[in-house]
Amino acid sequence: MVMAFVSLGxxxxxxxxGDITALFVLAMALLYAMxxxxxxxxxxxxxxxxxxxxPKWRRQYLDPTRNAVVGRQLEWFDYKRFASLxxxxxxxxxxxxxxxxxxxxxxxxSSRMSPTRFLSGYEHTRExxxxxxxxxxxxxxxxxxxxYRLKDGQAVREGVERxxxxxxxIRETGSEDTPYLARWKVVVSRSGIVDxxxxxxxxxxxxxx
Length: 209
Description:
Layout: H1 2-17, H2 22-50, E1 57-63, E2 68-80, H3 87-93, E3 104-113, H4 134-137, E4 144-151, E5 154-161, E6 163-172, E7 180-189, E8 192-202, H5 204-208
Antiparallel strand pairs: 1-2, 2-3, 4-5, 6-7, 7-8
C-alpha cells in the first residue's frame, strides 16, 4: 500500500512536470527519500487502521480427554480515548480524580462456552489475569526529589523518587444482569509498587442493598 501511494505520487509528478527533467528527478529523489524516512511510521499507521476494533488474540478451550473445543476467547489490547469507553467505566473513573494528560490502556476479553460440549459437572469457568507493571516502570524517569523532615530535633535531607499514579478500573460481566465494577489506585515509582488502594466498588448486589 505504501508503494501504491508512492507510484501514484510519481504519476502525479510526471503529469505536473511533463518530460523527465532535472526537476522531475529531484522531486522523485525527494519522494523516495520521504518514503524511506517515514516507511515504518506509515506501515504502523496503516496496520493500526486495519486492525482497529479487531481482537488481538484468539484462544480456544480444549477438553483434554476428548480433544474437543469447548469454548473460545477473544482478547483486545490497545490504546483508547477516554470518550470511547463505556459510560459506566467513565462514571467510575471520573468521580474523584481529574484526567490530566492521561493515557488509557484498554484490555478486554470475551469468552464463550459451548453448553453441549462443556465438561459435565461444571457450570462456571475461572480466569486469573496477572498484571506485570515492571515493563512500565522501565519507561519512567529516574528523577529524584529531596524532602526535609525533623529527626531528633534536626532537619534531615532524604531523597524521594518520582511517583506515578495508575488508575486500574475493572469491569466484569457474566451471567448476572448487572456488571461488577471496581477501581484501584496504584502508586508506582521506578523501583516498584509503592501503594495499592481500592477506591471504589460497584455491583448489582450493593445497589440492591
